[in-house]
């Protein structure tokens, strides 16, 4: 009987999210507004937690969520989730990068127009009973230069809307190619400083990272054209608010408009004193359409993961469609088993891990396969390793990771090669999947032999001389250990033989010692692989 997944919706969001979970057969509790203490008491009941920005899935609360497998953020930023801690525990963290893109882009355009025409100030003046037509001379946008920092999902839409206003659009984004910029109909600029010095409107659409914190600082603001406008609907902390105060107070900037702040909620700021700076309270994603879009999207993504294993818009693991998950399933089992095998044949202390893909498997999503290999390999020496954090843990330990691929394999439709170099020298293993569903190991250290990678195995190397098989069989028989499978092979060009022996029960240390002491036996390893 399968266990029904259970999800907590911890923050206020559209009821459509709850409806999606229920329609997919997932149990769901909608409990926004709980205190942290209340959340900690119940966090361990859930397989998934859906949040917006209020709940902080960090520290004690994250530690209390012992059962959670997936966290869904209904929105883009995941500042309120400790992604590194989640990765270490194998928790998939998802966001919804497309649900509020149009709404946020439209707010940026609204701020640009409002700042250019002083609409908020004119509204306040008119409501105060004044009629100050001459006090509100605006800037016409047609023919002006607009600068966009970041041409991702939101920034690209902003570029399109600015072109619709008949503005010349310039972009700073080191991650887009010249071809992509040309296709968007914008001009790519090499530095933020260059962009700031040439445009009349500068709008920001990048995440808050170490490299973007205070990206718009006193130097950049000083380079902006006198009478230009700055808009930030991205993240607080990207603009140095103290420096912004100075250039707006001095009149160097015509206007600034902020939807985000260094500290939120922003209830007290020197910028509030200035008439040429306008504000909104982080409402970039606040439209009826966007709220429903992100709620539905996060629920569908989380449900897909909990029910089928597919991964969409994860920030700490490669995305994987349901169809990809089905195609990869037998290869994932093979990959993990290959890693487990070498992880038990070799002592820990790895320098280089080389993974090669050949044939049809090269057309699949290979990153999950690499993660599975690393998880299997490292699992014998690290308790905390999982498919999400395996690469991170390998990198932390200075293990070099190498990957290669080629379209064809000499003998199989698909082949995975794993070679590990470390304190025990270098060992290699290859595996394939027959008929799209039957994983097999097909070579070990260049010796061809085929076996299903599951259950209890003995790996034995010996000088290729008579008597080894007889001695091995006698020791196992005397210990009451039945042989279920026996595969033999020779290393090409060497007088070395290899045996993979499937056995029905675990050998004792005494049995392994007897095997190692057999004449001509050089290596004995007991390998226990999980069932596929």
Short note summarizing the structure:
The protein has helices at residues 15-23, 36-42, 59-64, 83-89, 101-117, 119-127, 153-164, 178-184, 192-198, 218-223, 241-249, 288-308, 322-345, 367-378, 390-396, 468-478, 509-516, and strands at residues 6-9, 27-30, 48-51, 70-73, 92-94, 145-149, 168-172, 187-188, 201-204, 228-232, 253-258, 277-279, 350-359, 400-406, 414-422, 425-434, 438-444, 447-451, 455-463, 483-490, 496-503, 521-529. It is α/β, with parallel strands linked by helices and 532 residues long.
Number of strands: 22
Number of domains: 3
Radius of gyration, whole Å:
30 Å
Report the CATH architecture of the largest domain. Answer: 2-Layer Sandwich
Strand order of the largest sheet: 8-7-6-9-10-11-12
Global shape? elongated
**How many individual helices?**
17
- Uncertain regions spanning at least 5 consecutive residues: none
Instruction: State the secondary-structure class.
Output: alpha/beta
């Amino acid at each position: 009987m399968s266990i029904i997944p259970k999800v907590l919706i911890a923050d206020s969001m559209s009821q459509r999210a709850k409806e999606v979970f229920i329609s997919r057969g997932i149990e769901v509790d909608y409990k926004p507004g709980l205190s942290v203490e209340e959340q900690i008491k119940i966090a361990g009941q859930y397989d998934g937690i859906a949040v917006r920005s209020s709940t902080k899935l960090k520290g004690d609360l994250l530690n209390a969520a012992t059962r959670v497998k997936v966290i869904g953020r209904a929105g883009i930023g995941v500042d309120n989730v400790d992604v590194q801690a989640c990765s270490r525990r194998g928790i998939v963290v998802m966001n919804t990068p497309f649900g509020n893109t149009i709404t946020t882009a439209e707010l940026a355009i609204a701020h640009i127009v409002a700042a250019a025409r002083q609409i908020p100030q004119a509204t306040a003046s008119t409501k105060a009973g004044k009629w100050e037509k001459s006090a509100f001379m605006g800037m016409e946008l047609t023919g002006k230069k607009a600068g966009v920092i970041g041409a991702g999902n939101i920034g690209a839409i902003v570029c399109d809307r600015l072109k619709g206003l008949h503005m010349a659009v310039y972009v700073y984004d080191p991650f887009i190619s010249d071809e992509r910029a040309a296709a968007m109909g914008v001009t790519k600029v090499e530095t933020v400083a260059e962009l700031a010095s040439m445009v009349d409107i500068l709008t920001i659409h990048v995440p808050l990272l170490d490299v973007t914190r205070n990206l718009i600082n006193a130097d950049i603001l000083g380079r902006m054209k006198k009478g230009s406008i700055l808009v930030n609907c991205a993240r607080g902390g990207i603009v140095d608010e103290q420096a912004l105060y100075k250039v707006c107070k001095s009149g160097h900037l015509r206007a600034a408009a902020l939807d985000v702040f260094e500290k939120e909620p922003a209830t007290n700021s020197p910028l509030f004193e200035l008439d040429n700076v306008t504000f909104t309270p982080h409402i970039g994603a606040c439209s009826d359409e966007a709220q429903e879009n992100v709620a539905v999207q996060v629920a569908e993504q989380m449900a897909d993961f909990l029910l089928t294993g597919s991964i969409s818009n994860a920030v700490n693991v490669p995305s994987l469609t349901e169809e990809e998950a089905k195609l990869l399933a037998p290869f994932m089992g093979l990959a993990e088993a290959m890693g487990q095998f070498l992880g038990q044949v070799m002592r820990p202390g790895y320098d280089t891990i080389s993974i090669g893909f050949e044939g049809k498997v090269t057309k699949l999503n290979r990153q999950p396969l690499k993660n599975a290999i690393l998880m299997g390999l490292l699992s014998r020496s690290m308790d905390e390793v999982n498919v999400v954090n395996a690469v991170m843990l390998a990198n932390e330990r200075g293990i070099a990771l190498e990957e290669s691929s080629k379209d064809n394999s000499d003998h199989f439709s698909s082949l995975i090669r794993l070679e590990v170099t470390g304190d025990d020298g270098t060992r290699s293993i290859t595996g394939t999947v027959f008929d799209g569903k039957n994983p097999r190991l097909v070579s070990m250290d260049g010796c061809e032999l085929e076996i299903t990678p599951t259950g209890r195995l003995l790996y034995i190397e010996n000088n290729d001389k008579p008597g080894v098989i007889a001695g091995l069989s006698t020791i196992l028989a005397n210990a009451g250990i039945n042989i279920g499978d026996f595969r033999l092979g020779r290393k090409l060009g060497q007088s070395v033989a290899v045996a993979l022996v499937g056995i029905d029960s675990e050998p004792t240390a005494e049995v392994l010692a007897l095997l190692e002491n057999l004449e001509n036996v050089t290596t004995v390893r007991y390998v226990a692989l999980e069932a596929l």
